[in-house]
From TrEMBL:
InterPro entries: Mt_escape_2_C (IPR018850), Yme2_C (IPR039627), Yme2_RRM (IPR034260). It comes from Suhomyces tanzawaensis NRRL Y-17324. This is Mitochondrial escape protein 2. It is a single-pass membrane protein. It comes from the Eukaryota.
Amino acid sequence: MLLFRAPVAQAVFRTNGWRFALSQAGPLLTRNYSSDVKEFKQEADTNESDDSASTTGVIDQELSETVLYFDHVYPWSTSNSNIKQYLRFVLSPIQNGFSKEDVHNKITKLSSPLPLGAKITDLVPLQRDCGAFVKFQVPKDVTTKDFIVQIKSNLQKHRDQYNQNIFRKVFNKMYHHFPSVYAVKGTPWIEDLRRFPSLKLKVIFEGPSLTEEELYVLFRRYGLIVDIIPGSESATLIFRLIRSAICAKNCVTGITLNKAETTLHLQYIPIKRVNYIADFVINHQRIAIPVIIALLATIAVLIFDPIREWCIEQKITKKFYLSSYKDNKFVKCMSSPFKTIKSWLNNSYDYIDQQIHALEGDKHEEDSDPAVELKMGTLWSERFEKAKQLKLWIYENINTYIVIKGPKGSGKEEFVLEHALTDDQNLNRHYLVVNCDALSKSRSDSSLIRNASNELGYFPVFTWANSISQFIDLGVQGLTGQKSGLSESKESQIKNMFSLTSQAIRKVALADYEKYKKSVVKKNSKIPEGQEMIQVLKEDEYLQHFPEVKPIIVVNHFARKSESTANDFIYPMVAEWTSNLIQNNLAHVIYITSDVGSIQHLNDSLPNQVFKTISLSDASRQNAKQYLLNQLKLQDSRSIEGCLEPLGGRMLDLQSFVRRIKSGEAPQDAIEEMVSQAAEQITTFFLNNHRLDKDVDNNWTPAQIWTIMKLLTECGEINYEKLVNFPLFNNSDDTLSTLSTLEKFDLISLTRDKGMLDKIQMGRPLFNAAFKNLIEDLRIYKMYEIDLLQSLIKVENAKIKKHEEELIAISTVGGVENRLSYLTKKIESSNSTVVEYESKIAEIKKMKEKTEGRGFFKLF
């Protein structure tokens, strides 16, 4: 505040802010805010020792003193309203470089040379506003106005000297870096409230208001004014620069005008931050929400997809798998102590087990040695040639789309992974096994995505995000009337996972391509001039010439349809994915399937492709016998000779038989129990089809199953042409569907000749003995034989009804005697057949336990 020397009043009276003074000029009644604040401070500080400006907010001033305001003596980065001031550790050199003493020295330098007798008596820093109030002692022979002019002149000289450097001048023009000085006209209020500077000032009038022109005259000296909004009680000033608003607020606050009738109080008008993004989202939801979701999805793809692709690559290459380095000498050296300790523990357990068996008098069988385990892995010698053929097809690298077919339990997975791939050092480096069973049997969308990620090595995956996105999508649809697209179907998510896997496979296949190009360039540099250079192969040509660099994709348990109809899309999608790999020449694909109908998916994905097929059958009798001898450590086969015929060569049944023998069962008891279990499985699953789950496609009747069982027991195999002549199978379309379903459930096996169905055989060798066991059981035989005959009677009755309806229709028509005679004979023939079936039913009901001479297979 700029204080002028004024006559001292002889008496002062104050009431509610009004001041009545008796002076030399006469009585004067005013409302003086400035004097009120000073007098109030004096009354409040009666018993206080600290009455400084930092404590009270008011600067005490003698008559011979004046107060000036210097702005920009602190850098803006130290202001409390700047975000940088919170980084105190980073800005500690800046903060420490502007202490109160440093500011005092800076202002002294800018104000010098001072008139004789003038000095700085007090300095009140205002770091929030980047300025300071400075109280000067004015010499007696210098007026206050001349003193202020001298200070401003000195400051201008220092500014001109500072601007002699062209770079400093440009910097000062851009950022108004150099300090300025202003006279304090009012009573400054030094507060540290949370009121930060802004471009807008609110001017509160205590007394008569000022006009727009008067406000302009008063405030223009502090900087360019953008707008003035006058009012009766308050006005609003908008400055161009925040520095101007700070100077005006600190210098004009508390000024008294209009002959002490009007006092001005200035406040910063807080800056109202407008969040344009939030405003746009709230007011334009249909546009903003899809855009935000698209941006989030893009960011997620940019962050997580490279991580997922890298994880898939490691799943294929197994670079960080410990098993990949089992032959490394350093790994062997580090793992040898653990193997030694493990061996000690196993030997101690074996020793204790042997002693217990010795005390109990049991014969203890030692575990099989590595040679026997090797024989277990190389069970069928006739498959060695097929394994060689599989490797040859891969190395030929001509449309390596290979299908391995065979019944369940025939060792297809072992044949591919152990016999064909693991034994070859070039082929076992990069391969990926996709188990379709893990995908098709998933019970929920989250488990499906999780199982797919485990199979492909797709990590990280957020299964919980799928549920959350569904709620978000529902909310967005309620707000905007349309779906946001955030919630993806499980089909699209699985498709995206396989698409990213294709990228990883391509990257793995071309991992050594750059090394190949460098090696060719190096070889060309050694070739003498004039000779033909080696051409660098393109990527597709490189993959065609080096088949070992392409990963091998093994699709296991591929089928025609899933047990759950919700996951039926899995098999066509996998077929489409692998067909793209083959068409782009990125990988070798091997399908392992026991469902012949699944080949249709492959034909749909690659209609012009001829698949290379390897069919695996059960082991021969001699190999099965040798396998049992090796596993049971027998010298001769007399004890198991009677068990070989029911078991056949199915690997699962052979292993189950071995486990039973090792657990202590006698060979004959073991095989009888296995046959009994197989018979129970057939009865429960196929004959009692009313007990099946509703999701199972049981498009057969017990009578059809019973007929097939009897024919296979009698003949071993059935000609398809013969089967369709039977009344229950005369509809070829329904018969093909039924037989395909039974083949899927491994009850029968279908043989095709030139793509046409030729013969029907047993699905499992053990089922042959199970069929005989069921047919020889009189109670079961009577039940299902009667059911078969009743089904045949229904067929004949349906024929009779159809012929009778035709007879009634043409009975009134003349000249159709031949047709009437034909229909009559048909009715008589069907009727005699029904009578024959009924008589057989009566005979079966009278049958006793004696089973000889039944004539089971002379039904038709």
